[in-house]
Amino acid sequence: MTSYERGVAVIGLGYIGLPTSAVLADHGLRVHGVDTDPRVVEALNRGTVHIVEPDLDEVVRRVVDAGRLTASADMVAADVYVVAVPTPFVDDHQPDLRHVEQAARAIAPLLRGDELVILESTCPPGSTARMSAWIAEERPDLRLPHEHPESPDVHIAHCPERVLPGHTLDELVSNDRVVGGLTPECGRRAASLYELFVEGEISLTDAASAEMAKLVENTFRDVNIAFANELAEVCDHLGLDVWQVIELANHHPRVQVLQPGPGVGGHCIAVDPWFIAAAAPEQARLIRQAREVNDARPQQVVDRVDGVAATGATVACLGLAFKPDVDDMRESPAVTVVQRLAESRPDLHLLAVEPYAEKLPAALAPYDNVVLDDLAEALDRSDVVLLLVHHAAFVDLDPALLEDKQVVDTRGIWRGSRTG
Ligand code: SAJ
Predict the structure, then answer these.
(1) Sign of the dihedral through C-alpha 374, 379, 381, 384
(2) Which of 72, 155, 208, 415 is deepest in the core (most CB within 10 A)?
(3) Is ligand 1 within 6 A of the CB of residue 172?
(4) Which tens digits make up the pLDDT trace of 369-404?
(5) What is the tens place of the pLDDT at every residue in 52-85?
(6) Catalytic annotation, pick one of 123, 159, 186, 268
(7) CA atoms within 13 A on the CB side of 333
(8) Which pLDDT score is estimated for 327?
(9) Active site (annotated) includes residue 214
(10) Residue 416 phi, psi dihedral angles, 5° rounding
(11) How far is CA 46 from CA 60, 62, 65, in A?
(12) Count of CB atoms situated within 10 Å of the CB of 312
């Protein structure tokens, strides 16, 4: 078995890096997390976590107490570097790889030969080779695999994460993984790290195919959600209940239409298709169109509320997270809806209910007409109930509480109570 005496450095302690660090440490490795946010580093060194993910706090406490997981803002020397930093896009939907580049350039001075560098962040095709080139720029004394595939000093691979937030710890272990090396040996070395904890199948390929496979997974989902969202518009136009239509169609053995909603959020599905569109702008026509369909949804919800809310009305906005039963409000269509309502209807009193938040997200904080409220009070005070996220607490709501209210249910959970 490969020895990892100097341990594993995980760069980026977010929704992927932190659980990955915890699982690696729980499988006996010495892991050091590196993050630019001092609050994240301090929390981890205290054995606490800064994100909501089932059972993560327990595992982190255990491995920190055992001395196998530590953190710092500075890069440390290690045998393996796992890069799990954000890869957003800039204004015109072009991929922004600056965090990957910073990580690569920070790792480079510590390399002494024979290390393994794994890129886990979702990236456009060619990014793993670019990471290798950034390291080569910093270390002309080393042979990097993009230029010296026959005998590199350092091994580099892409191993995209594919865990579902809310199920991260289970899926880290049980999901199949794709491992793409810049050379076959790079892939084999990366696979042997994942074999320590992955129970699913590990498929070996080249780095660019692994990069593209990851983008395809999330784009497949985005295009299918766009289909459901477009059906919602079509059914609305025809006066039909889209949820009933989808339920009926899904009885066909080869049909599985997804669910419409207020848009697609999170930092993955709403982002990754743009990486394909940027890499092949002429060819990726359907992919771009699907993004546009999904991005148009929040405004359609705003228009619907605008149509039912009288001047000065109080609107209970249920849910701000990007999907049910998580605390993550990044790229959340629910936040976009509330923000646009706050701006376009300053007469409305918007009571945001988010069981997973202690304060409003930064995007909503500046608006005087938005406050964070608890569910019972918001329902009591509201004229309009706008359901944005189907958190369990909202699904189980007593329908009697919605009587005499205008209801706009963007998730179809209170069918029969809906007016919008
Ligand atoms: N959504 C709908 N209708 C649906 C399903 C989802 O509107 O029928 C919306 C959700 O409300 C949410 C968004 O789509 O706003 C995305 O939610 P999700 O649960 O589909 O996916 P994510 O973003 O939490 O995680 C995805 C997963 N990818 C796939 O399922 C192909 C996960 O496995 C990836 O690891 C993750 O992206 C990632 O990090 O890339």
Answers:
(1) positive
(2) 155
(3) no
(4) 999 999 999 999 999 999 999 999 999 899 899 999
(5) 899 999 999 999 999 999 999 999 999 999 999 9
(6) 268
(7) 26
(8) 87
(9) yes
(10) 105, -35
(11) 10, 11, 9
(12) 10
CB of 180 closer than 6 angstroms to any ligand 1 atom:
no
CATH numbers and ranges of domains, the chain: 8-200 (3.40.50.720), 218-409 (3.40.50.720)
**121: Cβ–Cβ under 8 A, 6 or more apart, which residues?**
12, 16, 83, 84, 85, 86, 87, 99, 100
* Phi, then psi, of 95 in degrees rounded to 5: -60, 140
What's the angle, vertex CA 134, arms to CA 148 and CA 197, rounded to 5? 80
Rounded CA separation 10/16 (Å): 10
Which residue puts its alpha carbon closest to atom 32 of ligand 1?
164
Order the strands of the 314-318 sheet from edge to edge.
Answer: 370-372, 349-353, 314-318, 384-387, 406-409
How far is the C-alpha of 344 from the C-alpha of 302, rounded, in Å?
A: 9
For residue 26, the CA-to-ligand 1 centroid distance in Å is 27
Tokens of 53: 């993910």
| Calpha distance 63→153 (Å, rounded) | 32
Active site residue 317: no
Which ligand 1 atom is at minimum distance from the Cα of 332?
Answer: 15
> Mean pLDDT in each 10-residue stretch from start to end of the chain (420 residues)?
84 97 97 97 96 94 98 98 96 94 98 98 97 98 97 98 94 98 98 98 98 98 98 97 97 98 94 96 98 98 98 98 91 97 98 96 97 97 98 92 94 68
Q: Is 248 helix (H, G, I), strand (E, B) or coil?
A: helix
End-to-end CA gap in the chain: 60
412 lines ligand 1 (CB under 6 A): no
pLDDT for the residue 420: 39
Q: Give the Cα separation of 136 and 306 in Å (integer).
A: 56
Distance CA 261, CA 295 (A): 11
Written as six digits, the tokens of 182 are: 């810049």
Cβ proximity of 385 and 367 under 8 Å: no
| CB neighbourhood size of 276 (10 A) | 21
Ligand 1 contacts CB of residue 262 (under 6 A) = no
Q: Which of 214, 235, 323, 359 is catalytic?
A: 214
Work out whether strand 155-158 and strand 177-181 pair parallel, antiparallel, or are unpaired.
Answer: antiparallel
